[in-house]
């Protein structure tokens, strides 16, 4: 009797098979939940990115209200550097809208008399502005500064000056590389240097003849200083001109490039791709399958990788009067 009573109080243990079954069930549950968690995080990052771009668009509207024009994508003019020597002064539109995006303190630090590539502005241009960055963009955000007006449009990365700036993921359309019908009926590559809203002259809302709801103001061009092509990070650039666009204080009006289907050639007579091909000078994001844009009316939209080149070109040009279909 004593032995039976002792057996009744003995605690049963998991067998090895039962333990393996439990571990397998937990593994399956984690495998099912992890993609959902990652998707939820990306949705939150994409929403934050969209909000950032909306704030920049609103700041551009406030700039227009104050000065009766939208900011130019970049200003380039003859001036004097902080060393007292004659130079080209270059400033981008994101630096110009700082007072309208709760950036007055940084605006006071950034000396617009000297431009973004002057040594005197290093403390300002190396500060990160949260509203100018997409949370989905990976990697280090400090990048070399390249200003062709000062270094002679070199392609040699060894000629880059020893100064840096914090990258932005948002740019404006200054001009467009695209294909156009020739008299022979063939497609030829052309470049319209100031067809976008954020060109070097600046635009008024009255200049946007296609309508503010049909014209891009801002677009994502993420990932600088890293070079990304079709979802894959590339080796460090060997052409210094890759860094022409990138710093938030710099040359933010982009002459947008078209690309071949394989992403190996830009600006050619058969290049018709724009979105998520290459982040050198084209729309590129880390939101799967799409990029976010801000239209001139301040609304945010998304463009998928598969949107036609014709629609993207028509959205980027402010007064071509072409009808834009569904996208």
TrEMBL record:
List the Pfam families.
N_methyl, SBP_bac_10
Q: Where is the DUF1559 domain?
A: 38-308
List the InterPro entries: DUF1559, N_methyl_site, Pilin-like
Protein's name according to its UniProt entry: Prepilin-type cleavage/methylation domain-containing protein
Originating species? Rhodopirellula bahusiensis
């Amino acid at each position: 009797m004593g032995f039976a009573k002792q057996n009744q109080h003995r605690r049963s243990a998991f067998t090895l098979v039962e333990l393996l079954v439990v571990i397998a069930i937990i593994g399956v549950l984690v495998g099912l939940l992890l993609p959902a968690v990652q998707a939820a995080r990306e949705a939150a990052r994409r929403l934050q990115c969209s909000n950032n771009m909306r704030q920049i668009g609103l700041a551009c509207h406030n700039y227009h209200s104050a000065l009766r024009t939208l900011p130019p994508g970049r200003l380039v003019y003859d001036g004097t550097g902080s060393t007292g020597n004659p130079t080209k002064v270059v400033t981008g539109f994101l630096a110009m809208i700082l007072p309208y995006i709760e950036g007055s303190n940084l605006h006071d630090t950034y000396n617009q008399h000297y431009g973004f590539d002057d040594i005197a502005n290093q403390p300002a241009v190396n500060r990160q502005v949260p509203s100018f960055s997409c949370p989905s963009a990976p990697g280090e955000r400090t990048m070399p500064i390249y200003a062709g007006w000062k270094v002679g449009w070199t392609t040699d990365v060894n000629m880059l000056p020893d100064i840096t700036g914090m990258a932005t993921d948002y740019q404006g359309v200054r001009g467009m590389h695209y294909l156009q019908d020739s008299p022979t009926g063939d497609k030829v590559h052309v470049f319209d240097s100031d067809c976008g809203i954020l060109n070097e002259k600046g635009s008024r809302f009255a200049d946007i003849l296609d309508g503010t709801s049909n014209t891009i103001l801002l677009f994502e061009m993420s990932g600088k200083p890293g070079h990304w092509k079709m979802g894959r990070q590339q080796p460090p650039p060997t052409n210094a001109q890759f860094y022409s666009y990138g710093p938030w204080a710099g040359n933010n009006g982009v002459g947008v490039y078209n690309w071949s289907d394989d992403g190996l050639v830009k600006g050619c007579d058969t290049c018709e791709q724009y979105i998520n091909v290459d982040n050198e000078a084209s729309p590129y994001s880390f939101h799967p399958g799409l990029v976010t844009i801000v239209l001139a009316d301040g609304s945010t939209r998304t463009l998928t990788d598969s949107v036609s080149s014709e629609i993207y070109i028509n959205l980027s040009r402010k007064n071509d009067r072409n009808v834009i279909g569904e996208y």
